[in-house]
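Figure 3 (text version): structure tokens given as input.
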């Protein structure tokens, strides 16, 4: 309510962590707000261009032979287009958007539109841009905010960052770039085969029907040939560097850091190759726009047959893939590398034991320190950060550093609305082995055995959180063998995607979900949708990756203990995110179980324990006593 009144005086931008939460704000909170405020507000929901349908591309897709499934999707889209006012394809509520038809019709931004198209004036992104200029409140997500801050900011604009604890994570994700040498080669090879094929319809046939001239054909294919050839020369140069600097004991998945100065030296020593690829990439983008406009006009006039349309659409899909794969090429700019000497980490990765493994060059910011304040917060008149655990004493200094805040920031903390002493029970399984001193095989056996006992003891909706998909792959078949006939087990990366298994989990009772990564946060499962959360081990990040080594080393150089000021607070926040999945409403009831005795046996364990909300009493029990407590809690 206060924000609504504020929006009558200044524009308000509300950013949240994900598009799912963004949709919840619009569908639930904003809808309720509109019902109670006595005045009108212009509210717009902004997302990345890939969420929207490109009407011109959709129109073109209707002229292309499609699979039966794609044709059914097109029929659904035709009906939806009569109803939608946003063009946001998430409104379709489809379980999956993996069909190739979506790659054909997704938006690539206003700059990529054909101004001569009959649909140009009614394009959904153009409409969104007009609505943004006149909006009182803009709802968006952190990724969009960080990449469009100049467009969203202003001296008369208030920024509210919801789920602010995730802002730095989104910043690092947005600034992580990858150049995959092998993928670029694969796509450019496919493009050349498509254009030059002797066995099927090719670009030579387009010349014969006078759609393009022979000179235009040569102009179109030349930059692709250049990239296809020169990318392998670069791959060889970087592979030589990797082999020369790798740890000889690491022959499975190799990670080798490259200092920005060393990378600049490699680029300067091979500048001719880099310049040739840069020029080819510029020409490719220029020619793509001209060719797309020519194709659109030919579709409208009915000049092309089905073979020609299929060929050009296949070509454009591959070309868009290539351009997307090479978006990070600008990160090799010599001036940019010099500017980012202190803030960026660069490394090579290569899976030696993986067949057809890809060589990748990776770029990432190490943290958001000295970035968010100057490049985000100062773009707005007022900034309000909202989120769970932002000022938790166990992680406050870490959180302030990640969010680029100083000690002068004002803090307001509100009481929790949940009665955890009545709604929950929290347990530590104390008869667990020291998981840091046993083999992986022994750990899998122990984990599977105790999970089997807990899951056979009750039939409650249970989510089990892991630190890696690899452990899920090992535990899943053992659980299926023992209890798969009694309860349905859903496993991330095995039985479906995150969204698919989440929806299946919510459809029934007594289901078991094995999840990692995304399931630790942002998953809303209220009431009986989730009754038990089991955390398999304390969620410390691996200290052995070259990226984490660099992050820890950066702090150590400043005289800051990296374990207590980075590794530990990250794990505490992660555990709290896992805990937060359990109780979502004042009427929820559930049990939390941690299968890691280190929280009770290590010096740092007290920091984990004290981070839990008031009313939560972590009780340490043996497995047999735990089973009795679980049963008694749900019959109270």
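Below: residues designed for each position.
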């Amino acid at each position: 309510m206060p924000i609504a009144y504020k929006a009558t005086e200044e524009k308000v931008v509300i950013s949240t962590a994900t598009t799912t939460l963004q949709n919840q704000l619009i569908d639930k909170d904003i809808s309720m707000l509109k019902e109670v405020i006595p005045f009108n507000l212009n509210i717009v929901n902004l997302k990345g261009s890939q969420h929207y349908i490109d009407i011109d591309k959709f129109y073109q897709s209707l002229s292309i032979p499609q699979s039966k499934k794609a044709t059914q999707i097109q029929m659904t889209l035709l009906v939806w287009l009569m109803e939608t006012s946003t063009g946001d394809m998430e409104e379709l509520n489809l379980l999956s958007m993996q069909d190739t038809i979506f790659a054909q019709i997704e938006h690539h931004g206003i700059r990529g539109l054909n101004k001569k198209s009959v649909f140009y004036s009614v394009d959904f992104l153009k409409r969104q841009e007009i609505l943004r200029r006149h909006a009182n409140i803009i709802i968006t997500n952190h990724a969009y905010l960080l990449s469009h801050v100049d467009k969203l900011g202003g001296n008369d604009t208030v920024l509210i960052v919801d789920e602010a604890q995730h802002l730095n994570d989104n910043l690092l994700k947005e600034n992580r770039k990858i150049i995959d040498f092998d993928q670029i080669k694969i796509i450019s090879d496919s493009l050349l085969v498509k254009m030059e094929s002797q066995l099927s319809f090719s670009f030579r046939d387009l010349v014969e029907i006078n759609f393009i001239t022979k000179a235009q054909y040569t102009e179109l294919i030349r930059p692709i040939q250049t990239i296809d050839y020169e990318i392998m020369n670069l791959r060889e140069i970087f592979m030589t560097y990797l082999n020369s600097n790798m740890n000889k004991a690491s022959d499975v998945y190799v990670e080798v850091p490259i200092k920005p100065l060393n990378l600049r030296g490699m680029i300067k020593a091979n500048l001719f190759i880099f310049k040739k690829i840069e020029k080819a990439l510029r020409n490719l983008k220029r020619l793509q726009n001209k060719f797309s406009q020519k194709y659109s006009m030919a579709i409208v006039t009915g000049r092309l047959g089905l073979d020609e349309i299929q060929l050009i659409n296949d070509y454009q899909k591959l070309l868009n893939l290539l351009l997307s794969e090479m978006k990070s090429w600008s990160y090799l700019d010599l001036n940019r590398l010099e500017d980012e000497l202190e803030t960026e980490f660069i490394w090579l990765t290569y899976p030696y034991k993986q067949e057809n493994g890809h060589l990748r060059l990776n770029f990432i910011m190490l943290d958001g320190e000295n970035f968010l304040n100057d490049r985000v917060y100062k773009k707005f008149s007022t900034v309000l950060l909202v989120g769970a655990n932002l000022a938790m004493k166990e992680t406050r200094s870490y959180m302030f550093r990640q969010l680029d805040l100083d000690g002068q920031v004002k803090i307001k903390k509100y009481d929790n609305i949940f009665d955890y002493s009545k709604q929950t029970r929290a347990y530590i399984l104390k008869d667990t082995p020291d998981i840091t001193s046993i083999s992986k095989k022994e750990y899998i056996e122990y984990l599977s055995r105790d999970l089997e006992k807990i899951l056979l003891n009750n039939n409650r909706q249970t989510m089990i959180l892991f630190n890696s998909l690899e452990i899920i792959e090992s535990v899943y078949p053992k659980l299926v063998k023992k209890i798969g006939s009694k309860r349905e087990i859903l496993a991330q990366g095995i039985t479906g995607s995150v969204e698919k298994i989440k929806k299946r989990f919510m459809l029934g009772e007594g289901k078991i979900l094995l999840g990692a990564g995304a399931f630790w946060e942002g998953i809303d499962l209220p009431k009986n949708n989730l009754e038990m959360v089991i955390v398999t081990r304390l969620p410390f990040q691996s200290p052995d990756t070259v990226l984490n080594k660099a992050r820890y080393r950066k702090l150590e150089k400043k005289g800051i203990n990296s374990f207590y000021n980075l590794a530990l607070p990250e794990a505490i926040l992660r555990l709290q995110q896992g805990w937060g999945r359990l109780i979502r409403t004042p009427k929820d009831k559930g049990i939390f179980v941690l299968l890691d005795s280190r929280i009770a046996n290590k010096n740092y364990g007290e920091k984990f324990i004290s981070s839990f909300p008031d009313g939560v009493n972590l009780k340490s029990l043996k497995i047999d006593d735990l089973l009795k407590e679980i049963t008694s809690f749900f019959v109270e």
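Residues 583 and 632 are 19 Å apart (CA to CA).
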